[in-house]
Design a protein that fits this description.
Residues 1-18 form the signal peptide. InterPro entries: 6-hairpin_glycosidase_sf, 6hp_glycosidase-like_sf, Endo-1-4-beta-glucanase_dom2, Endoglucanase_F_dom3, Glyco_hydro_48F. With 642 residues, this protein is of the alpha+beta class. The protein has one domain (6-555, 619-640): Alpha/alpha barrel (Glycosyltransferase), CATH 1.50.10.10. The protein contains 16 helices and 22 strands. Strands 1-3-4-5 form a four-stranded antiparallel β-sheet. The longest helix is centred in the middle third of the chain and has 20 residues, at 245-264. The structure holds 2-acetamido-2-deoxy-beta-D-glucopyranose (NAG). 2-acetamido-2-deoxy-beta-D-glucopyranose binds at residues 411, 413, 426, 493-494. Residues 411, 413, 426, 493-494 line the site of 2-acetamido-2-deoxy-beta-D-glucopyranose.
Length: 642
């Protein structure tokens, strides 16, 4: 047995392209993630948001999954391909993503009824859930969708090729919105398309009312869940999806690396089909570049005064926070709608993806103006980073074309220095918690800037990285293997004069890992010894201190979990039910509409807290963070052969 294992190991190592300490760590971590006993994957092979079920943050349950998770899965498998010279798992990861995260035609059946000269009907966003449902107002004119026709011509379908951001992998809510099915119910097996956030910038996950992506009025109230969010004259059975563009962009980025690595290994022919799908994903990802209602970008104040966009003048060319699409279930007189997003966060930008879609020959999108759009986007994203960089080095929030999500008048201090007429927002899109307080957005985004610099030597990226690296190095300290990196940030001022202050530090593994990878790419290109050394110490520190049987993780205090019993706003008189019979009616709480949480194996920890005990402590294994650890260790090994 021992001898057999040894033989197998030797055989594996013999095919490893870069066999060193750090690529070996990649493989160790990779095998922990793939070990069935760790519990990261569903029986269909879908990676969960986390191995643990009890977890509330952006997703409201650990065994949901997100487009983010799938993008990390694809990236990790791309690196496995580079190290083991086998890109089969990379192809498979893409197939899993496609099968479970991109709605099939039966799940988005009425796109051919879409009218690109009138993409959607305006409804003002509000600040808090209590101000919903929001009123649909067809007196506001909206712009036209300039990419629909060319996408139809390029791909021969009116359907969208993009990931919906959230699925209920174990069908715990019981909607049964599996591919091609609408509300097939609790007995349906497999990932079910759901959504949570719908009600304004102050709607934290704790205030959401999860709803099915396909609503046939079987569950919820008499109009399903629709009239919780939008007030209209009548309600039609319908489907709708929302993309999280940074995740789709990360999947394209991963495919770019797969392309590079497969070329180096003489394996390109094994992944060309996947690469053309990545290009297609990048083509549709352009919906993230447009104002929500395709209004003209710049000084757009007042929904009735803004100019409806024509051609590309509704494009900010950045990666917006989302785009969404939907339509009627009734296919007889089918109709459909699409929206972009006028708000962009620096943390979502991915200049490497833009670069790849322009320059990587195996990944050219087919849409007639796609390559030129991504070329403009690459330039615009770099300009955006430049505009948002603080004198200290960190990057501030972002900008919006629609103040408060309803084309309000912004405060006067924001109108002097705009970004192509868009207004600075230190916490774009969501405010609870503030969207740019978390340090993780920094390395997540700057990593892509560093990869762009590594790949292309881009001098604008280099200049910003010099400053960012100097800042982050000044905020990282070590004590033996222990490390301390920023946790939360505070912002003052308006671009081009924004300032940052670090308000707390942490030993969090996920963000330390992303920081290490960013520093490694920067060091590999610039030769900066200090950055390389800090990357190595972070990687060694987490590896030495935080091993678990499922990966590399450290414990955290879940100090927000008192909100399990906080009120969830339900309009007076509204009554509905979940498939399991949980009632949706005021007064509701996060827990009352998710009674299944009481059966969770870790529930007693939360229960003790709700009964007055201290905030519970957990050691989570988030898929993205665990894949990130593998990727940062592997990156270091591949870059420096150590
Ligand atoms: C702009 O002014 C408003 C008050 O009108 C203030 O609350 C806000 O913090 C200022 N914004 C910035 C970024 O300084």
């Amino acid at each position: 047995m021992g001898a057999l294992a040894l033989t197998l190991l030797v055989a594996l190592v013999a095919h490893t392209n870069a066999n060193n300490v750090y690529t070996t760590r990649f493989l160790t971590q990779y095998h922990k993630i793939h070990n069935a006993a760790s519990g990261y994957f569903s029986k269909e092979g879908v990676p969960y948001h986390a191995a643990e079920t009890l977890l509330v943050e952006a997703p409201d349950y650990g065994h949901e999954t997100t487009s983010e998770t799938l993008s990390y899965y694809i990236w990790m498998e791309a690196m496995y391909g580079a190290i083991m010279n086998d890109f089969g798992p990379f192809n498979k990861a893409w197939e899993v993503m496609e099968e479970f995260m991109i709605p099939v035609h039966g799940s988005q059946p009425t796109n051919s009824g879409y009218n690109p000269s009138r993409p959607a009907t305006y409804a003002a966003e509000h600040d808090t859930p209590n101000e919903y449902p929001s009123l649909v107002d067809s007196s506001v004119s909206v712009g036209q969708d300039p990419i629909y026709q060319e996408l139809v011509s390029a791909y021969g379908t009116s359907d969208i090729y993009a990931m919906h951001w959230l699925t209920d992998v174990d069908n715990i809510y019981g909607f049964g919105n599996t591919q091609g099915n609408c509300e097939a119910g609790p007995s349906a097996s497999g990932p079910s398309f759901i959504n949570t956030f719908q009600r304004g910038s102050q709607e934290s996950v704790w205030k959401t009312i999860p709803q099915p992506c396909c609503d046939s009025f079987k569950y919820g109230g008499q109009n399903g869940f629709l009239d919780l969010f939008t007030k209209d004259n009548s309600y039609a059975r319908q489907w709708k999806y929302t993309a999280a563009p940074d995740a789709d962009a990360r999947a394209v980025q991963a495919a770019f690396w797969a392309s590079k690595w497969a070329q180096q290994n003489g394996k390109l022919s094994t992944i060309t089909t996947t690469l053309s799908k990545a290009a297609k994903l990048g083509d549709y990802l352009r919906y993230a570049m447009f104002d929500k209602y395709f209004e003209k970008i710049g000084n757009c104040v007042g929904p009735w005064s803004c100019q409806a966009g024509w051609g590309k003048d509704s494009a900010h060319y950045l990666l917006g926070w989302y785009f969404a699409w939907g339509g009627s279930l009734d296919t007889q007189n089918g109709w459909a709608w699409r929206i972009g997003d006028g708000a962009a966060h620096f943390g979502y930008q991915n200049p490497l993806t833009a670069y790849a879609l322009v320059n990587e020959r195996n990944m050219q999108p087919k849409g007639a103006s796609a390559v030129s759009d991504w070329q403009i986007s690459l330039d615009r994203q770099l300009e955006f980073y430049e505009w948002l960089q603080t004198s200290e080095g960190a990057f501030a929030g972002g900008a919006t074309n629609s103040w408060n999500g309803r084309y309000d008048t912004p405060p006067s201090n924001l109108t002097a220095n705009t970004f192509h007429g868009m207004f600075y927002d230190w916490e774009p899109v969501y405010h609870d918690p503030p969207s740019n307080r978390w340090y993780g957005m920094q390395p997540w985004s700057v990593d892509r800037l560093a990869q762009l610099y590594y790949v292309s030597g881009n001098s604008r990226a280099k200049k910003m990285l010099d400053k960012w690296v100097k800042w982050v190095l000044s905020e990282i300290t070590f004590n033996g293997n222990k490390y301390s990196i920023p946790a939360t940030l505070e912002w003052t001022g308006v671009p081009p004069n924004v300032h940052v202050r670090v308000t707390a530090h942490t030993n969090d593994v996920g963000t330390a890992s992303a920081t290490a990878r960013t520093l490694a790419y920067y060091a590999a290109k610039s030769g900066d010894k200090n950055a390389k050394n800090v990357a190595k110490k972070l990687l060694d520190g987490m590896w030495a201190l935080y091993q678990t049987d499922k990966g590399v993780s450290n414990s955290e205090i879940a100090d927000t979990y008192g909100q399990f019993q906080h009120e969830v706003y339900v309009p007076n008189g509204w009554y509905g039910q979940y498939p399991n019979g949980d009632v949706i009616q005021a007064p509701a709480t996060f827990l009352s509409i998710r009674s299944w949480y009481k059966k969770d194996p870790q529930w007693s920890k939360v229960e003790q807290h709700l009964n007055g005990g201290p905030a519970p402590e957990f050691t989570f294994h988030r898929f993205w963070a665990q894949a990130d650890v593998a990727l940062s260790q592997g990156t270091y090994g591949m870059l420096f052969n150590e």
